[in-house]
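Q: What residues go here?
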């Protein structure tokens, strides 16, 4: 098919549509191409959603979020069952250890009221036998008339198959509602399936002049207590936390999730240490028997490696060690680590930025001016040659933590 034929099809497709409808179609195409590789023309119909639909989907997303920290490597899923009279009959959200899926929990609550009702599900129901039987089968058998869902599941075992199965059974399936919000909620899961590597979230606490410590190395604390609590919330959302050897030596951190929230797997600690400078007496090494810890190195110091391994640290040796970030992330992906919080230091942050391996960034900005040419800055590396090459964050979220500012966004590359 040549370009003129493509143009004719496009013109016929848009004929008679309002500007609002055309914009909605283009938004759907963009969302789908970003997340799931494109839709067919048959998919591009305008769904009419009511305010009630939006309210119920918002509720499904809210209850799905209750599973944060407790589902990886699976996705966050919430489900609301509304009976044929428009009343909520059941709700459920997924937890990995509980095995039962969100749809099943909601259906069990709803009982006979599910018949003829609507299921609002935050992610496409699965249609295959895995750890559980298909959720599509349960929805069909319960007599659900309509399923409203924002997005497909990017897992190849699921993607599109769940919707197809429901439609074959005569269930009305309507998609696209609150798609951006649903994709954002499961951004780590979606990224892991699309890119084949963990989602990387860079977190830095800085002064107004971009410093992360004084010239003497004093860095406790740049951010206030509220921001530090928020930082632990970020740790809670991730499967692993990553630092460089300098941070491990200077700060001697323990690197744990102290959010107080339940999590399924312990936060995995990752240290990039090419020269194996990590002290045997450090808190990281001394607690490695209780907390999973991985060290990436290019060192061939067999004695030091044995010492670390005897402390139950997993040592991964590669030619470039911690300098080979794609290999680091690939190794973490093999261990079903979907997300990594990069906490420092400046060299590590710069390496990830230069490699364009940052998927999200959060800066905690404190109202401090530290000054001094010897005080460490937040991001090193090669950096941009021109302002036009700088990384601009988009989709910003800015919140005030007392006198600190928390700025989160997504890189524009």
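A:
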């Amino acid at each position: 098919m040549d370009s003129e034929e493509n143009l004719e099809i496009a013109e016929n497709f848009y004929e008679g549509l309002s500007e609002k409808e055309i914009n909605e179609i283009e938004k759907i195409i963009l969302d789908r191409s970003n997340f799931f590789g494109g839709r067919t023309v048959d998919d591009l119909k305008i769904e009419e959603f009511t305010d009630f639909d939006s309210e119920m989907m918002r509720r499904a997303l809210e209850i799905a979020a209750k599973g944060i920290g407790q589902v990886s490597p699976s996705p966050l899923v919430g489900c609301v069952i509304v009976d044929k009279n428009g009343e909520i009959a059941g709700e459920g959200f997924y937890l990995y250890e509980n095995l039962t899926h969100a749809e099943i929990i909601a259906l069990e609550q709803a009982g006979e009221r599910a018949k003829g009702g609507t299921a609002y599900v935050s992610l496409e129901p699965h249609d295959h036998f895995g750890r559980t039987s298909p959720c599509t089968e349960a929805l069909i058998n319960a007599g659900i008339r309509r399923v409203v869902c924002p997005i497909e599941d990017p897992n190849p075992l699921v993607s599109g198959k769940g919707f197809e199965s429901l439609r074959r059974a005569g269930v009305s399936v309507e998609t696209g509602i609150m798609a951006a919000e649903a994709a954002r909620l499961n951004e780590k899961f979606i990224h892991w399936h699309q890119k084949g590597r963990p989602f990387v979230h860079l977190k830095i606490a800085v002064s107004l002049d971009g410093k992360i410590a004084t010239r003497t190395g004093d860095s406790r604390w740049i951010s206030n207590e509220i921001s530090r609590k928020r930082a632990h919330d970020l740790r809670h959302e991730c499967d692993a936390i990553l630092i460089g050897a300098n941070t491990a030596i200077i700060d001697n951190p323990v690197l744990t999730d102290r959010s107080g929230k339940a999590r399924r797997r312990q936060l995995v600690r990752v240290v990039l240490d090419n020269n194996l400078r990590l002290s045997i007496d450090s808190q990281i090494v001394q607690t490695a028997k209780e907390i999973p810890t991985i060290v990436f190195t290019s060192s061939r110091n067999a004695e030091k490696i044995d010492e670390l391994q005897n402390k139950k640290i997993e040592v991964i040796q590669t030619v470039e060690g911690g300098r080979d970030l794609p290999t680091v992330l690939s190794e973490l992906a093999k261990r079903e680590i979907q997300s990594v919080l990069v906490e420092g230091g400046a060299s590590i942050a710069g390496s990830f930025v230069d490699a364009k391996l940052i998927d999200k960034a959060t800066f905690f900005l404190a109202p401090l001016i530290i000054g001094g040419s010897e005080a460490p800055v937040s991001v090193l590396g090669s950096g941009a040659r021109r302002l036009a090459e700088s990384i601009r964050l988009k989709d910003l979220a800015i919140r005030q933590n007392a006198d600190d500012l928390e700025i989160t966004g997504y890189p524009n590359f």
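A: Context that may help when evaluating the design: The longest strand covers residues 393-401. The two ends are 32 Å apart (CA to CA).
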